[in-house]
Structure formats: C-alpha cells, structure tokens
Amino acid sequence: MTPVVDLVLLTAVIINLQAGGTASFFHGLAALYLGVSVAYGHKMVRWADGHFAYRFAHGPAPVKRYGPVYTRESWKDAARTGVAVAITAGILWLLIAIVADPRRTGALQGIFPILGIWFVLDLIWAISYTLWPKQQLSATKVFEEKQSGAKREGRTALADLIGYSRAGDTVVVSSMDRLARSVVDLNQIVGELVAKGVVVEFVHERVSFQPGDADPFAEFQLNIMASFAQLERAITRERQAEGIRAAKARGVYRGRARKLTAEQLAQASELIEIGVPKAQVARQLGIDRSTLYRSLARNP
C-alpha cells in the first residue's frame, strides 16, 4: 500500500509543477517524505507494530539495544539515511528539471543543505557510538519489598528507598502497582521523591516524573494510570477468588501451604543432615518444597 501512496504523491507533485505551479517548501517536503518512506518504511512499520502490541495488546516489551548491537544499528540507520538522502536529492533534481526555471525552484534548492546536515549528523551519531558504545544502565542499589498488602505502614523497603534517595538519583520501578496499591499512596510517594529532586520512572507504563515538573497534565496522567493499575489489581484478585471457588467446587483446592511445626522442622533438619534429599523430606512431611526451603531459611 505504501508504494502506491508514494507513487500517487510523486505524480501529484509532478502534475502540479508541470501545470505552472511554483515549487514551494511543501514540494521539497514531499520529496523528503518519499525518500524517507523508501529507506525507513519497513523499519518504521516494525517499530510502530511492536510498540502498539506492547501498549495495547499485551505484547512483549520492545527490546532495547546496547553496546555493539546498538552501534551496528546506528550504522544501519546511517546507511538508510544515505539512501533516503540520495532518493530525495534525485527527486528534487527531477522536479527542478521539470520546472526548468531557477526563479521558481529556490525552495527546492534550499532542501539540499538540510539533506547534507541530516546525513552528517547521522554519521557523527554512528561514529560516536562506535567510539563510546551505549552501555546498559544498571541499578546501584535494589530495593525489594517483602511486605504485602495495600497499606504503606510497615513497608521497610519503601522507607529505605525514600531515605536512601538523593537529588539527582533516578528511581526505576517495574510498574505503578509495585510502588503503591492506591492512587492516594502513589501520589504521595511520587511527590515525596520528586520533592527531593529524584526522577521516578515506571517501566510498564513508560512514563517518568521529573523534579520541578508542575505540569497539571502530568499529575492527571499519574492519577489516570494509577487508577487503571488499581483496577487491574482488583480484577486480578477477583479472578483469583473465582479460581479458588472453582477449585473448591471440584475438591482440589488445598489452600495456603501449611507451616511446619517445631517438631516437624527438627525432623526435617535431622533427615537432611543424614543425607535425605530435600524434595523427599518435603514429600514425607506432606508439604511443598518451597515451604520447606522457607522454613529452613527462617530457622537456620
């Protein structure tokens, strides 16, 4: 479909100029569009499809490139830009030849310096990432919350995060519902961090909040996204409850993994000490291996 649109656009431009029209910046812009469409069309479609699937169809997150992979992609983009520049320049020269009047092609002539600047900038970009490869950011400190529940009280990891953060830091959170379970708490926590000069980024929602950002739309966006996250969590809980009810009706629901008594824990330790595999010990006690591992970790 895209080649047809490109051909129609080129034909319309040529007909307009042959009819005596004066070449304008928009004619040059049409030539530039045609060059970019041919050189970058496939990549742009893949990019748009990937991001649409991620945002609206629960598709995988777009893969970010770093190091040599990003460098190679930069050189590929430079090559694509070279192709786009060559095609655009060819179309411009064709249009100039059709008009055959320098007084009516000044706008087209003005596009050539722009093409040169674009190509040189892409070359500089590729060269810079060849000399200084783009490195993947790594967290200097990771805070993982063990406390579950909707209330903020007792969340020691969150308190440690806020206390540790300093102006200029960036806090990266996997999703809004990992930082807070209610719109009020999310606003409060983000507000505290931003007030300290900390940037807060949410990976799943693909938004960030900057210090000094008093944009009312940003606050509105935060509230809307937090509301959706809260709704999604409520739906998940309801589905979980429905699954439990269905399992109970079938007689296959076992409930939460039961904890070991002190006597069972001592027995498990003795069996493990004499060389009995932990999986076998868990089966003998009628518990999951994860329950056994947690009990042993809490009682070394």
From TrEMBL:
Gene Ontology terms describing biological process: DNA integration
GO molecular function: DNA binding; DNA strand exchange activity
CDD domains in the cross-refs: HTH_Hin_like (cd00569), SR_ResInv (cd03768)
Coiled-coil boundaries: none
Resolvase/invertase-type recombinase catalytic domain span: 97-251
Transcription in keyword set: no
TM regions (residue ranges): 7-34, 78-99, 111-132
Pfam family, one: HTH_7
UniProt-listed SUPFAM superfamilies: Homeodomain-like (SSF46689), Resolvase-like (SSF53041)
Keyword entries, A-Z: DNA integration, DNA recombination, DNA-binding, Membrane, Transmembrane, Transmembrane helix
Keyword Membrane carried by entry: yes
Family the entry assigns: Belongs to the site-specific recombinase resolvase family.
Name assigned to this protein: Resolvase/invertase-type recombinase catalytic domain-containing protein
Provenance organism: Pleodorina starrii
